[in-house]
């Protein structure tokens, strides 16, 4: 008889439930939104707010792994996660995710404001219920619509300071929202068999590889000017402006190479390069935005 998942679980298994790599992006974008927002938040409350958003992201990951344990077990990319391997029981993961959700929303409401807390609660619900339980298994547009969940953190960070949303926070949301389809569809191209085995209707499995490559390029065309928008709208400096243009050009180059891939290309090298660069692209944009928010745009420092 298999031992209880609780007795087998180690701290690192519970950490894995939180999807720490995804959480790192959530934390970066949330801090950026908080730092760019007009006004101020006491440093202690700001730290608690970011911690709350990080816990909320982790809760979403745990709930996602609880519900997706059946398909995680048949995909090579996810087969070693704690639930498919039996190190954590599904019921334990569910309780863990729900408990963290309640903790995160309560902490953010008490530390910042209840508008930001409500936005965090909606984000957790959107990812765990709308995306994981509904969209992921029912439509090839799962990533397009579900990607909104990953785009909310900078808006939540902004709301923690201001108690609302603004054009700037919406632009930050749109950068991540438009980035998500080419990022995940590039992955889906070279993990097509995984998704096929799991019965997940990702775009390459439903519409074919060529249609997916076209969609990747079209979304990339939409993403790049939005990535430059913070500079054009005046809430980012020239360093960000130049970097966003250069990074955007490189992103388009990889997207075009993916578009031009030969049908039946088994190596999927262009798609793999696009997937890898897309991570660097998004982190690069938000790191520069954060640096400018904390230390000031170059022109401000020169004029000081």
Automatic annotation (TrEMBL):
Carbon 2 of the heme B porphyrin ring is defined according to the Fischer nomenclature. Keywords: Cell membrane, Heme biosynthesis, Membrane, Transferase, Transmembrane, Transmembrane helix. Converts heme B (protoheme IX) to heme O by substitution of the vinyl group on carbon 2 of heme B porphyrin ring with a hydroxyethyl farnesyl side group. GO terms for molecular function: protoheme IX farnesyltransferase activity. It is a multi-pass membrane protein. This is Protoheme IX farnesyltransferase. It catalyses: heme b + (2E,6E)-farnesyl diphosphate + H2O = Fe(II)-heme o + diphosphate. The lineage of its organism: Bacteria, Pseudomonadati, Pseudomonadota, Alphaproteobacteria, Hyphomicrobiales.
